[in-house]
Every structure is written in structure tokens, then in C-alpha cells.
Amino acid sequence: MKEKDLDRWVDRYRKAWESNDPAHIAALWTEDAAWYRRPDEAPVLGRDAIVAAWLDVADGPGETDFEYQVLGFGDGVGFVRGWTTYLTNPPAEFSNLWVIRLDRDRAHEFTEWWMEKPL
Question: Which residue intervals define the domain SnoaL-like in the entry (predicted)?
Fold first, then answer.
């Protein structure tokens, strides 16, 4: 795996985030993936459960802007820093840190930290 593979995965993640299409979401994950929506909570386990959990908290299309930077990648593990702006009223901004363990082009494990920026 190379950094460009991580970039492609993040691009697909963003597509799924915007579309909320179950097929786009499912294509991101291995069958036995683990999604840690917060590092201090139990993970959502398995592709089908991840799709269902994603749709339970889905953002609306066009509701966010997102930028990211790959901080590092090696041995199938990527580190991504992100900036999310919710275009809601009132707007909200978040800083994100993702740790993504890839198995080919799908995430086997995904852990995210997100912190709201004070306005």
C-alpha cells in the first residue's frame, strides 16, 4: 500500500459521506472491520453494522466542507488530519485525527478523534 492508496480511500470516504449511499459506505470496509467512532468507546463491528451505524448519524449532502492532510503512512496504517466545517446555522468547525488500517483498498480498522473548535 502507498500513500496514494490512502488518498483514494479518503476520497471514497468523502463520496460516501456526501451520498450516504449504503453501497458507497460498504465499499470502504472489510467484512470484519472495526469502526471506533471515539477511541474510548466500543467499536462498531462488521461491515453491515458499520453501514447501519453510519446511516443513523448521517450528515446531509452538502452540509459539510472537508479538507485533509496525510500525516504519515506505512505498513498499511495511515494517519490523517482533517478539518470539517458544518455549513449549518450556526456553523460548527471540527478538527479530526484518523488512524486507518487498510487491507488492500478497504479499511480493516478506523479510529477517529474529533474535537469541536470553539467559536
Answer: 10-102
Is the full-model pTM beyond 0.85?
Answer: yes
For the chain, the domain total comes to 1
C-alpha–C-alpha distance, residues 26 and 20, integer Å: 10
Q: Per-residue pLDDT tens, the chain, 119 aa: give them.
A: 678 889 999 999 999 999 999 999 999 999 999 999 998 999 999 999 999 999 999 999 999 999 999 999 999 999 999 999 999 888 999 999 999 999 989 999 999 999 999 87
Q: What share of the chain is helix, strand, coil (3-state, %, to 5)?
A: 25, 45, 30
Domain span at residue 90 reads 3-116
* Pick from 50, 37, 51, 42: nearest CA to 114: 37
Grid cell for residue 91: 456553523
CATH of the domain at 87: 3.10.450.50
